[in-house]
Design brief:
The protein is mainly beta. The protein has no helices and eleven strands.
Length: 136
C-alpha cells in the first residue's frame, strides 16, 4: 500500500471523533482531505462495556456543509481485502474492540467524516486516521 512507502514526516493525524461516551448516533467532524494523497488508515477504538451494537462508516462530500454519502470502494479491514462496498468497520457489541481499515483517498470526495449508528446503549470510543500530506 502506498502509505507504507511514504516518509514518516509526511504523515498527519486526523481526528474524526475524540474519545467520548456517546449515547446517540455520531455525525462526526468533517476533515478536508484536499492536501492528502495515497491511502488513508482509519482506527476505531471502542472501550469494553457497551450493551448494544455500534456501526461506524465513512462518508464524504464535495463541500464541508454539503450532502454526504457513503465512501464506496474496495478497501482493507484489519488487513483483509473487502469487496467494493461502503467503507465501514465490523459491528461492535459489548466487548472492547480496536479495528483499522485502509482505503484509497481518491475513492472519497474532498471532505470526509465518520458516522455511527448505535441502538440504546452508551459506547465509549474514538475514531482517528493517519494520512500522507502531498507537500510535506
Amino acid at each position: 500500500m502506498a502509505i507504507l512507502s511514504t516518509g514518516l514526516s509526511k504523515l498527519s493525524h486526523l481526528a474524526f471523533a475524540p474519545t467520548a461516551a456517546r449515547t446517540a448516533n455520531l455525525n462526526g467532524t468533517a476533515v478536508d482531505m484536499q492536501e492528502y494523497e495515497g491511502d488513508v488508515i482509519v482506527i476505531l477504538d471502542v472501550e469494553n462495556g457497551g450493551t448494544s451494537t455500534l456501526d461506524v462508516k465513512l462518508q464524504s462530500s464535495d463541500t464541508e456543509g454539503g450532502s454526504y454519502s457513503d465512501v464506496t470502494t474496495v478497501f482493507s479491514r484489519g488487513g483483509v481485502e473487502q469487496a467494493s462496498g461502503a467503507v465501514s468497520f465490523a459491528q461492535v457489541s459489548t466487548s472492547a474492540s480496536k479495528q483499522y481499515l485502509v482505503f484509497p483517498k481518491g475513492a472519497a470526495k474532498r471532505w470526509i467524516k465518520a458516522v455511527s449508528t448505535t441502538s440504546t446503549s452508551t459506547h465509549t470510543y474514538s475514531i482517528n486516521a493517519v494520512a500522507a500530506k502531498k507537500y510535506a
